[in-house]
């Protein structure tokens, strides 16, 4: 399972956003990394802006290039707005749904919970972070894992009404994926149309 394991604060500083979750380094150094990061930088080209937007989406959801391109091609074959459908596919990933449910504090932590077989889908253990959750399916913490401190800490004070496309159920310590989210319901600061234009070149 390939994933980015490099310095996360450096990536967050490149985009000027805490895309991996709360970041103390970003708050102290809110400028680009590198020797000249605090100096005025030259204007980025249109292609550079589109490429940066794609990179931001990849890092945000923890997806590498081949997987991301496959999702884009899948999205482009469906009827509707390609960029929005791409984001919906990313939101439907099992690790992302676990994160949205508040079971894990970050997507990286959610990915680890999934990989270590702490998460079930419709009662069956699924350890594939990229698994695509379908509307109506229930994502929950495995019975043996419900007492894990890391999960209790993440859930403490979490607002489960934050996302309208997921319905929390305290009894199963999980929730139902009701439907694909609308673009307005996805809080990520991603200009998906720029990604579409990049791949269309």
Describe the structure.
- This protein has 201 residues and is of the alpha+beta class.
- It folds into 2 domains: 94 residues, Ribosomal protein S4/S9, N-terminal domain (Ribosomal Protein S4 Delta 41, Chain A, domain 1); 87 residues, RNA-binding S4 domain (Structural Genomics Hypothetical 15.5 Kd Protein In mrcA-pckA Intergenic Region, Chain A, Roll).
- The chain contains 9 helices and 5 strands.
- It is globular, with a radius of gyration of 18 Å.
Poorly predicted regions are none
CATH class of the largest domain: Mainly Alpha
Task: Tell me the structural class.
Answer: alpha+beta
Order of H and E elements: HHHHHHHEEEHEEH
CATH architecture of the largest domain: Orthogonal Bundle
Number of H- or I-type helical stretches: 9
| Distance linking N and C termini | 29 Å
Radius of gyration: 18 Å
Number of domains: 2
- Proportion of strand residues: 5-15%
- Beta strand count: 5
**Strands across the major sheet, in which order?**
2-1-3-5-4
The dominant shape is globular
Portion in helices: 40-55%
Indicate the mean pLDDT. 87
Largest sheet properties: 5 strands, antiparallel
Q: What attributes does this structure have?
A:
201 residues, alpha+beta, Ribosomal Protein S4 Delta 41, Chain A, domain 1, Structural Genomics Hypothetical 15.5 Kd Protein In mrcA-pckA Intergenic Region, Chain A, 5 strands, globular
């Amino acid at each position: 399972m390939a994933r980015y394991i490099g310095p996360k604060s450096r990536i967050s500083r490149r985009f000027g956003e805490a895309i991996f979750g709360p970041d103390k380094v970003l708050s102290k150094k809110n400028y680009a990394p590198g020797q000249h990061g605090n100096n005025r930088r030259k204007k980025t080209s249109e292609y550079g802006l589109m490429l940066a937007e794609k990179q931001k989406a990849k890092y945000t959801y923890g997806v590498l290039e081949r997987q991301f391109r496959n999702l884009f091609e899948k999205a482009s074959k469906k009827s509707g707005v390609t960029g929005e459908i791409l984001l919906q596919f990313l939101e439907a990933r099992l690790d992302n749904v676990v994160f949205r449910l508040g079971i894990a504090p970050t997507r990286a932590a959610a990915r680890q919970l999934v990989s270590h077989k702490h998460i079930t889908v419709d009662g069956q253990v699924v350890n594939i972070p990229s698994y695509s959750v379908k509307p109506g399916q229930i994502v929950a913490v495995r019975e043996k894992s419900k007492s894990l401190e890391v999960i209790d800490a993440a859930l403490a004070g979490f607002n489960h009404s934050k996302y309208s496309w997921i319905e929390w159920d305290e009894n199963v310590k999980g929730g139902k994926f009701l439907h694909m989210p609308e673009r307005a319901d996805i809080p990520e600061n991603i200009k998906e149309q720029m990604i579409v234009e990049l791949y269309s070149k």
